[in-house]
Amino acid sequence: VDGNLPISETSAFRLNFMAHQNDTPDRDVVNSKRWAFAPSIAFGIGTNTRFTATYLHQEEDRIPDYGVPIAVTASTTDIEVPVTELGVSRSTFYGFAPTDADNANVDTLTLKFAHDANEFLKFTSDTKLGSYQRFYRQSIASCPAVCSAALTDGNPLTIPTTSITPRGGIDVDTRGIQNVSTLLFTKPLGGMRNELLVGWDV
How many CB atoms lie within 10 A of CB 148? Predict the structure, then answer.
């Protein structure tokens, strides 16, 4: 969704909104969803001095999927194959829901300032403040010897035993601020075209 609302001849308000959800074909439990909105306001549109402020908030929530484990067939030469080739349904999920998760939250505020002093001298300054949070934890399944043997012995009553290793989660919280400013000078000197750019990134 993208909506624009003029406030005056040189200012306007804008709002973007997004939502998304999907499953994974033939896989139980696995899914992903996210949504975001971004309002912004601008002043001085079409003038020599312009200012824009934009806020973004986005949330994402999904369940990591490491697929099915690999089994070793019992033969003279061991062959590694996915357990789905030995009768296990592709839809089988081996993680721990909802403790297996990949959740992210993002909040940013972007301030943009631009001023055209004249035809040859222009100044821009962009500042961004950001907060980024993410929690991630997944489980990895394996098919050890007892599992492989159960799958390959030809007995349909055998219940395979799979080893699932929950991994310790990561919990990250990052905050930052950045400013990028430039001064551009483009006046011809000595009959020659030139550009002089001075700036900083902090």
Answer: 22
